[in-house]
Design goal:
This protein is of the alpha+beta class and 116 residues long. 25% of the residues lie in helices and 33% in strands.
Length: 116
């Protein structure tokens, strides 16, 4: 079975497709880095939509999601954005973890796995 990699760098690929499964690396905010959890989450989900489209799938086929936030006090703020984005009736298995992220301007990181 072949493996396809998208946006591959020396350390990681942003997306990897194996068979009919798409694995995304953890996604940080781009334009919204340093902004509110709401803005960062919106930015991340837009980036995820783009990666999934490149891999030939979309958010209606999410299998799992792992969300990292730097402060569990922002859980409801992040969820307000997530709930408006996720495909109704197609919600993935999900975990949310409080964690220190790679740089102080990042408050949210999201990693998903989807079917094709």
């Amino acid at each position: 079975m072949s493996i396809q990699r998208f946006e591959t760098g020396p350390r990681m690929s942003q997306a990897v497709v194996h068979g009919n499964t798409v694995y995304l690396a953890g996604v940080f905010a781009g334009k919204a880095a340093g902004g509110s959890v709401t803005d960062q989450t919106k930015d991340i989900l837009t980036i995820i939509d783009g990666h999934l489209a490149k891999a030939g799938t979309d958010k209606s086929k999410l299998l799992s999601a792992t969300i990292y936030i730097t402060d569990m006090k922002t859980f409801a703020e992040m969820n307000a954005v997530w709930d408006g984005w996720v495909s109704e009736g197609n919600t993935p298995a999900r975990a949310t973890v409080e964690a220190k992220l790679a740089a102080p301007q990042y408050n949210v990181e999201i990693m998903v796995v989807a079917a094709k």
